[in-house]
């Protein structure tokens, strides 16, 4: 296979991944040991994140004209690409644990849900909990007021439905002014 066709195949592979991606995070992995790199790749794979080192020129060709084009200035030196498909924060969140553990690893930039973030903001994105956790928090906040409301209704039913009639705001204001 001629060289140009091999390069085009790699560019097309990257483009294909980017079309399905909800986020792309670039990291500089210079200085990682083989053991650290293997551990990180395994964890990312288990989290559903594609992690690969591509030539910067190949990535540059692939991102031209896409929402990921803002990453082009960061494609200098060794660059690893982490692509997340379902959970937009998965790549940043999973890499963040390794950035803290493996000193040579550092964020360069990323695009999450079509929005460009520099390295410092990718760290902030990495702190966002997974979707499932956010949903459970939301449901928990709904559950508490509903449970309190249900207890009040149960007490009313137990007393035979004899609850004191509710005052209208006008009646409450009249009582306050009379005092």
Automatic annotation (TrEMBL):
<dbReference type="GO" id="GO:0006412">
    <property type="term" value="P:translation"/>
</dbReference>
<dbReference type="InterPro" id="IPR047865">
    <property type="entry name" value="Ribosomal_uL10_bac_type"/>
</dbReference>
<keyword id="KW-0687">Ribonucleoprotein</keyword>
<dbReference type="GO" id="GO:0070180">
    <property type="term" value="F:large ribosomal subunit rRNA binding"/>
</dbReference>
<comment type="subunit">
    <text>Part of the ribosomal stalk of the 50S ribosomal subunit. The N-terminus interacts with L11 and the large rRNA to form the base of the stalk. The C-terminus forms an elongated spine to which L12 dimers bind in a sequential fashion forming a multimeric L10(L12)X complex.</text>
</comment>
<dbReference type="InterPro" id="IPR043141">
    <property type="entry name" value="Ribosomal_uL10-like_sf"/>
</dbReference>
<keyword id="KW-0694">RNA-binding</keyword>
<dbReference type="InterPro" id="IPR002363">
    <property type="entry name" value="Ribosomal_uL10_CS_bac"/>
</dbReference>
<dbReference type="InterPro" id="IPR001790">
    <property type="entry name" value="Ribosomal_uL10"/>
</dbReference>
<dbReference type="Pfam" id="PF00466">
    <property type="entry name" value="Ribosomal_L10"/>
</dbReference>
<keyword id="KW-0699">rRNA-binding</keyword>
<comment type="similarity">
    <text>Belongs to the universal ribosomal protein uL10 family.</text>
</comment>
<dbReference type="GO" id="GO:0003735">
    <property type="term" value="F:structural constituent of ribosome"/>
</dbReference>
<dbReference type="GO" id="GO:0015934">
    <property type="term" value="C:large ribosomal subunit"/>
</dbReference>
<comment type="function">
    <text>Forms part of the ribosomal stalk, playing a central role in the interaction of the ribosome with GTP-bound translation factors.</text>
</comment>
<dbReference type="InterPro" id="IPR022973">
    <property type="entry name" value="Ribosomal_uL10_bac"/>
</dbReference>
<protein>
    <recommendedName>
        <fullName>Large ribosomal subunit protein uL10</fullName>
    </recommendedName>
</protein>
<keyword id="KW-0689">Ribosomal protein</keyword>
